[in-house]
Each structure stands twice: as C-alpha cells, then as structure tokens.
Design goal:
Blueprint (H helix, E strand, L loop, with lengths): L3 E4 L5 E4 L6 E3 L8 H7 L24 H4 L4 H8 L7 H19 L5
Antiparallel strand pairs: 1-2, 2-3
Amino acid sequence: AGGRVVFDGYANHRVYAKNGRYPGLNMSRCLGDLVGHSDAGCSCEPDVSEHKLSPLDHVLLLCSDGVWEFITAQEAVDLVSEFDAPRAMLAAERLAKWAWDRWIQEEGGAV
C-alpha cells in the first residue's frame, strides 16, 4: 500500500513509508507493527511453501533476521547438523551465539 523497500548496500532490505525514513522494518519484525501496516504496506499474511519430508531431511530452522543477516543457510545447517534431537537446544544456542559473535565483530566490538 505505497511502501518501498530500500537496500542498505550491505545486507539488509528494509521497508519504509512511501515518502519517509520510517519505520525501517526488517521483515521478520514487522508483524503487528501498525505504522508499518498503515504507511508502508506490510502485511501479516505469510509466504507459505510446502516441502514433502524425506529421510534426508534432518533439521528445520526457523530463524529471524538476527541470524540470517549474519549466517548463510548452509552455515546454519552445518552448525546444527551434528546435534541429535535431544540436543536441539544446544544446536539453537550454538547458532544464536555464532550470529551474535558475527554481529559483534561487524560492529567492531562496540556493542
């Protein structure tokens, strides 16, 4: 509904109101944002895809932009694939720590 998507030149695409520098949303954070909905056209209707599970499927990763901004999909799979189901929380913690460390590194350790 009139919003625009702007690439920051590095890794992020953010949604802004048509004629403003607000709200600057990363898409995983826009659900429920009334300004994002009214001024930038964000929708709470998700994109949905289906994948038939096979014996080769071992993990399902549901991550926010806080992970995907710093970790590629393949890196994420590699980081968690050594963990079995009972250690899923450890896998999630490892992935979150790697993303956090990359964020800190990008910020120059100034966070």
